[in-house]
What we know:
Shape: globular
Mean pLDDT: 77
Number of helices: 49
Largest sheet: 10 strands, mixed
Amino acid sequence: MASARRRPSRPRIVAQESEVAPSGLQDNLKAYLESSNLHKSVSLSLSKLVSHDKLPSNPFASLVSTLRLEEIKPSLFEDSTIEAKWLRSLLTGSVYGTYGVNGRRTPRKLSTPSSGNVISMSLAPLHEGSVYGLKHVMDVLDVVGVVCVVKCCKTLEKTMYPNGMKLTKNKDYTESVSLSIITPTTFHGMAFSSGELTDLVQNVDVTIQGSQFEKAVKIYSIRLMTELFAADLASGVCLDVKIHCKTASRKKGDPDTVKTFTPHSVRVHKNNFISAVKSSTVSHRSVTLECLMRTCHFKSDNSLPKGEVELGQGGVVNWKFIRVKRNYIMHYKDTGGTARSFSELPGMSLAVGYFLDPGGSEAAESYLQLFSSGALAAAAGRKKKVTRFVTEEMGKKETDAEATRKATEAVIGGDSKSPIWNYPLFDEIVESYAAQVKACVTRRNDFDAFSHCLPISILTGKQEALRAMWRMLGGAKLSDDGKTGRCSLASYVNRLRNDGQVLAECCRVMSDLMIALLKREKEFWNGKSDEGGKEAHKSSVLKTLANFREVLGVVHSMFWSWNSEILEVAAAGAGSDAAGLNDVFYSLLNDIGDVQERRMKLNEFPSYEVGKDPVRPAFGMYGKEAAEEETDTDSEATTEEDEEDGDGDEKKAASGPLQMPKLNETQCKAYSESLRSNMKVLKVLVGLLIALERCAGMDVASLCVENHLEAVKERLDKMKEGEGLMKKSSKAVTAADIEKANFFQKMQALNLVTGIGVLESLLQGPGINDIVVNGKASSSSKVAPGGSEGDKENQAAQNELMFSIRWTFDRQKMREIKTGLHGLIVDVEREAMMAAKSRNMYALPIAKEGVIMQYLVDARVDQALSHCFDSVLGGALVSNPFPKFVSELRSYAKRLAWTTNDSEVLSEVLGLVDADAEEVEEVFVDPYEDKGFDELLEMYEGAGGDDVGGVGVVGGKGWHIGGSDNERNLVQKVKKYPSVVADESSATMAVQIPGLGSKVVYGSKESLCLVMPDMVHHVISQLPTFTDNLRVPPPTSALSVTCGHNLRTLHFTEMGRLQGSYKLPTFLELQSDYVAEFAIAKQVAKVTQSFSNHVMELCESFHERSRHLFLGLAIGKGAYEFGWGRFKYNYASVSSKKERANIMNAVVHYLTGEVAIHALMLVPPLSDPGEMDSKEPLYVPAVIRLVCFRRGPGTGESTGLKKDSGLPSWISNSPGQQFLSVYDDLKAAMANGVCCGRTKSELGGGASDGNKHRMLFRKCRHDFVEHLKGEIEECTVKGDVLEAYDSYLKLCSFNLEKQHEIHLEDPEDPSNDPEYVPSLIMSLPGVSRMCGSVAGRLRRLKGLARGIAVLCDKGNASGVALPVTYPSIAPAVVSRINGKVLLDQVEYFNKEVERILTGEDCMCLDGACRSCLALLPKLAAAVMVVKVRISTGGKLFEDSDECGKLLADITGFLEAVKLVDAKDVFSQQVDLQRQFRDLDDNDEIH
């Protein structure tokens, strides 16, 4: 059953004496439930759950998955009359036409077809002119959307050609240019978009007629350069301008080669650009110009009947940036008029696009004539395919007209009425889109799959499929007056995601432009210029700054609306998943936006005014390289000259010959850095939006496929009835049935998404990995022959499961198929038979119902549903109750995963056990598991229990109670986790766990509370030792040095005591202490020099005497963070004799700052006692802090030393380092204790032994407690619950013994309020449950992903690899990378992710989970490529960076799932929520 521990309780009848609700209110609630379909949906989901013979251990996973689809149904209408009305309105244009004189919609105004079947659509009265194309495209256009696109095109044309386009026309060569709009921009508008333009995709067809092809290519290249340079000059309108030249790969199947040019690179390397353009042209590939364009013509809805631009607050136009993509295609005509097109997909502009005025009609007609010869070849190719299908697949003769017709339908996917029937030229276009659909379905990106299906459905005449496209891409509800409501959630979030990506790109580009402007300014002042040069430079800078301000205004305007819309999405009514991320959205938006003004937070805009020449920083003792990288933002590097005020600068500048203004370098760098910081936060927001988009999109796809599957069954049933073979209907359609019905060719509804993406894979019959995860498609539609009848039946049954899993993500079915993912199930038939057998008075059907009822009661389903109904009906009755209902149900279901009570957690983690537990043979059941310890003691006191030997007994069983002065402490079981005093003078404790090894660790009692000694020894043993590998200076009378390694406290999700099955931390923070004891000030220089030598020796030994991967030595601010630091040196620099002195100087200079080694440590998992086989090691990211401080506490009171001495004391180190460090060496631990000021008073001794040191120690403890509380508050506000829990557990380590909170006073100022510290005993169960949650397990995988990313992600696309500014990994380190370890790490990572995401306790963001699972095999394949490359001596990275892109998507999805799940767990931990809220309270101890 659900749990062996839980005992079924007796049914209780509770008499409620509350007043009966008025009948009117009851009627209203009943009507609300009926209208919202909530009650019926819950009943159906329960029926669906209990209809299976085997029930999952967690019923909520099935309930939530079913109700999630109901959540989105209100905007996806099932009424056939409404859908038919919508389809008629689309085809007639009655709702998607233009506005008449009365301001209402009128049908589209289409002309009669011309000789080339080209028709026009008038844009009047909204806009002058028309657009031109084929009828199948014109029939689905939204006029208002087209007007929006046309206005954007006009803006771009004026930007590139302010004085109009000038074409090459002479007696030798003639040039003509035509502009067309293609997908996805073609279908912009209400029907198939969110209503706001995000991408402007154009085809620019350049036709050149002349005698020489080489000359024509040059003219074509000049046209490209003209537009490129024009866009670059309009920096206030166009940003991030670049041009891509694609060239077909030499090997078939490989991706195209792409060369990217910027305007600057084209100016410098003009001939190379022309050569690249020629290569692209002759290989039939387009040249593409991309940029971000400022526009205000972006919105198209019924609120703007006259096409006016929407105004924001104060009458200011709402501007935004959109992506522009211009594809240039060259067509060449010789002097005889023979045309030759170099288009990759001939006919694309008319197949899925339209041409614009002026000259659109002639351009469309001429465009078709360009492919006259190609059309004949395409017709011959189609005929060949049809003939082969007729003879080989159908077994008919070529002359059979009916067979030829059916074969043609099968080959092209459309009937004789479809547009593609008369245009064989479009066959290749449909195949191209089909390939894109397959790729999108493989990645589980259903939204993009539907967008690519749209043009195929139009070309193949599948009009019924347009309804499904409308649901996904638009989904706007139609009312009687033709007005449109909001678009689908998937479409809405997709637009927000695109806008967020554009904002991030704008921040990146502006940051780069600011730095480039500053660089140009420096070059100008370093050179010599005449008066004209100075004036030109001044004019250029002023223009650049003016353009920069214009761009900044657009960014602020765009962010204003984007911010508002994200908050709308984050509201509870937008979706259950969005509600789970609302705290995170609020926090991230507050990080980068001003709450009052709703503007983006940025530093002060750089000034450009008359001032003195900036002083270059002098080379310090830490070397030339460091001096060149100094930034004025660092307080240590600012010079006195930079701090002088502007008046003094003006006076000094006035004494010179000219008063030239200058940029403020400090402001420029600070402004650029603020843009970079905002860009990083925007990318995080975009990642969360992508996860929401996938979830909403896949829910729509699931509903569409469910409807489609029902249609499939009906069609097959009718077919069987006609054949007289009607039998009992099966539960699912089998692959054989689909093939027999030839359904792949004949289906009408949603045929491309299911047909291309699912049915081909289904008919291929691969394993579950290929179907559910890989999603590979087969070009064959045959069932593989061979095999026994039993094998065929098993395969058919498996195919039925696969079809369902692919779209509904049924975790239970997936676990049934994959043996490695088996979970607990309840066999209803077996349980019912056992119940009927033991109770003869019950019949089997009744016993079965009883089993199901008991199952639901044991799982607390009744309580959960009652709670959710109360929550929904007890507040405002919103139009869609499902988001709130599902969110409440999902979080409530987390309780089912808590299989252990508080007592069991405390017994396992802390060794707190029941007094009689060892004497009782049966499993102890705590009758007070729902009560706290204080309540238990109150019951004991009230019951008058006998006190026997200090043991309080309640009902014959109780807890060990001890202590004096009425302190209530739980006594630890000494044999399990003994903690003893190792050194009394320094208050150093020791812990050893008998039975798990003989290792002993040392440290403060706070740092030792939850450690596993064997794990500490296991990790520290991987470092170079001080006895064999490293030399420690011998002690003298003047100087003594103590060295030791320590392991800093692991993240709480990686603590072995909290998660016993977890044997390997995935991220390590270590520290190597260098403690010097001396009394004479002149020894400081000797100590610092000795420490710098020690650092270099440790780096070399780390590389030479281990298999770890040395990534770099980081020095300066940020070095303690993996991948960061002011200066970084790879192993090639560290081992270089030329750079050794420079690095040592830098170490000495930043001695009081941060010095650390960044590495990937090759660490095997910790083996269990008795295991003989060594486990496979993994690459674990590690930061090894290298610290040097003098022995003894204080700030410089020692004899002969000044307070500003260059050698720090312990108090100068990172906050709380003494409470976070665990040693395997007693001498080093004692040195740490002495330096921290710990005395025996901390063990309960008197205060007479060093009272001054004791006060200093307690001041540090008080400050660290304040620091932890600040971290908890910051993380809680940001919605990062896991990090808040980590700091909270560190805080609780200061209250180990008490069962209640304590208060720590400030020793320096007793008048201050004491700091509140919660009890570890009371808080530990909640922390442990968070550790074992889906969020906690995913947090542990972050280190594994980082280890993979460091070796496979070149550009840090994943955000967890090394930053792009980090020095490249030295060749000596690359050569020792173990490819097998890397592959094992990826395999382990993939296996863990799959196990977690398919587990029944993972119930959030199903779309993100499915997308993540689809990407895992691709990641393994990409890493295999890296392994093969480095094993053959190749480079570690390549330009494609496929691994980085995959890791970026995977980690983004996992992060979203982690955040939502952590919030769900936290929402059910009422006690911890109260503790978090009370952290600032300072009530008296009670």
